[in-house]
Every structure is written in structure tokens, then in C-alpha cells.
Amino acid sequence: MSSSNIILTKTDKTVNGTIQLTGSKSECNRALVIEALSGGRVKVKNLSDAADTVTLAGILNSTQLAVGSNAVAEPATVNIGPAGTAMRFLTAYFALQPGEVLLTGTERMKQRPIGILVDALRKLGANITYAEKDGFPPLQISGGFEQQTNQISIKGDISSQYITALLLIAAKLPQGLELHIEGELTSRPYVEMTLAMLKQAGIQHTWQGNMISIANQEFSETSLPVEPDWSASSYWYAIAALADEAELFLPGLTSYSLQGDSVITEIMANFGITSQFKDGGVHLKKEPKPIQRKIFDMKECPDLAQTVIVVCAALGHEATFTGLETLKIKETDRVKALQNELGKMGVKLIEKGLVYKLDCSEKFIPESMFINTYEDHRMAMAFAPLALVIPQVEVEDAMVVEKSYPAFWQDLEKVGFGPLTP
Ligand SMILES: O=C(O)C1=C[C@@H](OP(=O)(O)O)[C@@H](O)[C@H](O)C1
Ligand SMILES: C=C(OP(=O)(O)O)C(=O)O
């Protein structure tokens, strides 16, 4: 598929089908770093085809080979593209590995803050300098260091990815790590996912109050299976919510998941979507009912925010949203991007301090709508379901979905969204 726009139409408002989702990029990215740190004792199972994961796997493979052949004497430039999670995890990983690396990414990556993580790693003893702007990638990392302390304090309210990055390397630190989380912890389920996966890989921890401790210890010989991506499932829940009738089967998803985004089942129950776990997956069914819930807190599931806000806008449901603070430093400023695009159907997302209110009083359904995507996969995927309520939806830069869900458009085509005109 070319990197051009795509046009979606869906005249028939019924959606039926089976969609096999790719693996969770969050789980995969953790599993890959754990595999690399374990020296191959831990093996990843069901690698995702998300571009961020493929990029990370390629980098870890090539840099491990380079270390083996002593070829890292020359500083290597490592370009992580738009993958924020991988950027943060690799910063900690390369700080530990011997060798010189210039770690960089897209122009947007150079605007995504990393100072909190760099400060923490420097306190541990790591040698990291900023190649351009203080506090932001690219980073010059001179890997391998003598550990200065095992006590680190870190702010918890900007990104949980900094915390995960430190936890992933903690067991390899000679003195282990005692991580004190300052203030509120955002995206908490992602930290829980990290600790659960480390545990599967044989790494024990304690978490008491604001303190997470991991001693120096060995990884076990084991495999880490990766579940399908619950964040990706959210677009199917949105499609079901906007369809007249929907019956969908998503194989491989189970009621117990390491992914906090599995909370989409509870969120979408408010929109009449039932989730039944059987046949080795989840069955979604639409059973129309009035929407009751008025307040949605997205702090623990920020990647679902766009999906849920677009569904509310399309249904004219004037809900209130909290926990959107971190959206401004993701692939784009997602709050601004949502405000711009919802504005094209007369819906406003009004910021009042930390609370956002959806105002649908001037909402209208245009004949066609052009969706700008701001190099953000979730803008493309969250707005695509609008083709069920707007006769024609054109989505800019269709390839953007590759970051986490490369088969998204093909999957839409399977259930009758079309013609998909590249
Ligand atoms: O650790 C992870 O895999 C992720 C953590 C979250 O980021 P923040 O902790 O920055 O909110 C989430 O938005 C991102 O897509 C994936
Ligand atoms: C925020 C996201 O990813 P990352 O931070 O890894 O770029 C995302 O996938 O929504």
C-alpha cells in the first residue's frame, strides 16, 4: 500500500466477521528487551508485526551481533523512528551495554521529553549526553558504567515508560535498584505489565507504597508469549458501537490480560457492546441501550482516549474526560489533533484545567470528512469508524497505522469498508 490517503465508505451499517489482531507492541517491546538482556535465555513467542516492534527487534539483533564481533568501537547511529516506548527502553539498555551509540528518531521523537529518564540513569552512573537539545533525543550514550547508587527517585506523572525502562535493566545492575516513584503514577497498568513480564522471566520484585525494588538476579530459561493487542481491539469496539448491528470475533484475547487496555470491555459495555469470552477469544455483540456513563478517566488507559472520544462525538454523547494530560507528548499533541478533527463535524473538546468536556451542541454530519492524522496511527484508526456515520471518510497518510497495526485497512476491507482507494 502506498503512503497516500485512503477513502472509506460503509453503506451497510452491519458489521460481522473474525479479525485476528497482531501482538501487543507494549508486550513485545518489553519481551524483546528482556530477551536481549537475558542473553537469549528468555525467548519471545508471537512477535507482533507492529513497525515499532520490528524496528526494535532489528536494532537489538544488529547491536548484539556488533557487540559479539567487537564492532562497536565506532559510535553507531541507531534510529528508532517514531517508537517512543522503544526509545525509552533502548536508552536504558544502551546505557548498560558497552559501546558508543547515537540514539535518535523522527523529528517528533526529538520533541518527546526524555530528561527524567536520562537524569535517573545519570544518577546510577550512566554516561549520556544530549546531541541536540537538553532533555530530548538524540542521545549520545557511552555504554557500560560503574553503578554509583541503587536508590533512584523518579517523577511518575509524565510517562510510565521511564519507569519501565529502569525496571527492565534493574536485575542486571550489580546493586539492583530501589525506585521511589514521586507523586502520582500515570499509566500504572503498563508498570504492572513490566513487573509481571519480568516475573515470568524469573525476576522477582517488591512493590510497597511508592517503592519498587529489584535485586541483582539472573533471568530464567523460559519463553514469553505475547497476547494480541487490546489497544488495537478498541477500534473494533468503536466500530461495533457505531454500527446498527455488530457481531465480531477477536481470537486470542482472554479475560485475563497483562494489558490495561483490556478495560475497553468495561468502557464499551456503556455503549451496549457485550464481550463474551469463549472459543479462545472474545465475541463482541451490539445490544443497543441508552448510554449512561458521563465521566471517563483515561489516566490508566491513555491509548484508548482517542477511540472513546470519537465514539462519544459520533453518538453526540456529551461526556467529560479526565486523565488526558500525557496525550500532549505522544505521537502528536493528541488533544489538539482531536480538537481540530472533531471540529470538522462541529464537535468541541473543551479544556477546563484537567477536565475536558465534549460539546456536541453544534454537531453536524458532513457528506464527507477529511481526517488529518499528524503522523499518529491512533488518529487514523480512531477516526476510521466514523465511516459508519459519515458517507465518505478520507484518511490522510494511510501507512501511519503500521506503527502498531499494519493490517488495519485490510481488516476493515474484510468487513465491508470500501472501496479502499489508495
Ligand atoms: O509502556 C508502554 O508500553 C506504553 C505506555 C504508555 O505511555 P505513557 O506511560 O507515556 O503514558 C502508552 O501510552 C504507550 O503507548 C505504551
Ligand atoms: C503512545 C504510543 O506509543 P509510543 O509512546 O511507544 O510511541 C501509542 O502507541 O499510542
UniProtKB/TrEMBL annotation:
Family matches, as PROSITE patterns: EPSP_SYNTHASE_2
What EC number(s) is this enzyme filed under? 2.5.1.19
Return any one Pfam family short name: EPSP_synthase
Q: Which residues bind 3-phosphoshikimate?
A: 25-26, 30, 159-161, 187, 303, 330
Q: Which residues bind phosphoenolpyruvate?
A: 25, 84, 112, 161, 334, 378, 403
Instruction: Report the locations given in the UniProt record.
Output: Cytoplasm
Q: Which keywords has UniProt assigned to this entry?
A: Amino-acid biosynthesis, Aromatic amino acid biosynthesis, Cytoplasm, Transferase
Gene3D superfamilies from the entry? Answer: Enolpyruvate transferase domain (3.65.10.10)
Could you say which enzyme class this protein belongs to?
Answer: transferase
Please list the residue ranges annotated as the Enolpyruvate transferase domain: 12-412
Annotated catalytic residues? 303 (proton acceptor)
Which superkingdom? Bacteria
InterPro entries linked to this entry: Enolpyruvate_Tfrase_dom, Enolpyruvate_Tfrase_sf, EPSP_synthase, EPSP_synthase_CS, RNA3'P_cycl/enolpyr_Trfase_a/b
The pathway this protein participates in, as annotated, is: Metabolic intermediate biosynthesis; chorismate biosynthesis; chorismate from D-erythrose 4-phosphate and phosphoenolpyruvate: step 6/7
Annotated catalysed reactions:
3-phosphoshikimate + phosphoenolpyruvate = 5-O-(1-carboxyvinyl)-3-phosphoshikimate + phosphate
Question: Could you tell me what this protein does?
Answer: Catalyzes the transfer of the enolpyruvyl moiety of phosphoenolpyruvate (PEP) to the 5-hydroxyl of shikimate-3-phosphate (S3P) to produce enolpyruvyl shikimate-3-phosphate and inorganic phosphate.
> Which family does the entry's similarity section mention?
Belongs to the EPSP synthase family.
Q: Which HAMAP family match?
A: EPSP_synth (MF_00210)
Assembly and partners are described as: Monomer.
Q: Which PANTHER family match?
A: AROM/DEHYDROQUINATE SYNTHASE, PENTAFUNCTIONAL AROM POLYPEPTIDE
Q: What is this protein called?
A: 3-phosphoshikimate 1-carboxyvinyltransferase
Native source organism of the sequence:
Mucilaginibacter defluvii
